[in-house]
Amino acid sequence: MKPVIRDRRRIDPETGEARAADAGTASGPDAGAAAPASDGVAAAGEELAAARAEAAERLDDLRRLQAEYVNYRRRVERDREANREAAKAEVLAELLGVLDDIGRARDHGDLTGAFRSVGEALESVTAKAGLVRFGEPGDAFDPMIHEALMHGYADDVEVPTCTQILQPGYRIGERIIRPARVAVAEPTEALPAAPADSPGEDDSAENKDDQI
């Protein structure tokens, strides 16, 4: 077997030019190792992209759960506050009759002595609890907070107006515990016109006189 001699010189001795890379040399052991390395880098890139996508999905789930928890807490707090206000309104509604008696006694000058101290203390406690009294003569009539028990007409009003407070109203915040019971006066211009006498009635009266 004859020995194989390969010319590995990079410069061609005859032409003096650089030789192109030998395909056989490129396909040596180093080229074989480069191919698996590139495949490993591509696989690692795919795994990294998949891991990032999964992490983003988990982060979205976490944010959604956090938002749901925040909304749940707000709803619980809102319901708790509504229940607290309802219980408070129920208790204070039982005291309205007593407050009415205190108000009537004050109007008649009978709120004196120990009764006055007790009455004012009760009014102070209910006010601290959020109970607000409303309804004054001259207020514009509002059917949402007023209950009209008497109705009339007046020349000195331009809109339906509460002219007399028959029983004050009470509220807690926006909740109306009892509407104010009032007498209402409308402008005189709103007074319905009196119906005119019909001609038939006059004729019948004249005929009756003639018959007599």
Automatic annotation (TrEMBL):
It comes from Jiangella aurantiaca. Keywords: Chaperone, Coiled coil, Cytoplasm, Stress response. This is Protein GrpE. One of its GO terms (biological process) is protein folding. Residues 21-39 have a biased composition (Low complexity). Belongs to the GrpE family. The lineage of its organism: Bacteria, Bacillati, Actinomycetota, Actinomycetes, Jiangellales. It comes from the Bacteria. Participates actively in the response to hyperosmotic and heat shock by preventing the aggregation of stress-denatured proteins, in association with DnaK and GrpE. It is the nucleotide exchange factor for DnaK and may function as a thermosensor. Unfolded proteins bind initially to DnaJ; upon interaction with the DnaJ-bound protein, DnaK hydrolyzes its bound ATP, resulting in the formation of a stable complex. GrpE releases ADP from DnaK; ATP binding to DnaK triggers the release of the substrate protein, thus completing the reaction cycle. SUPFAM superfamilies: Coiled-coil domain of nucleotide exchange factor GrpE, Head domain of nucleotide exchange factor GrpE. One of its GO terms (cellular component) is cytoplasm. PROSITE patterns: GRPE. It is found in: Cytoplasm. The keyword Cytoplasm applies.
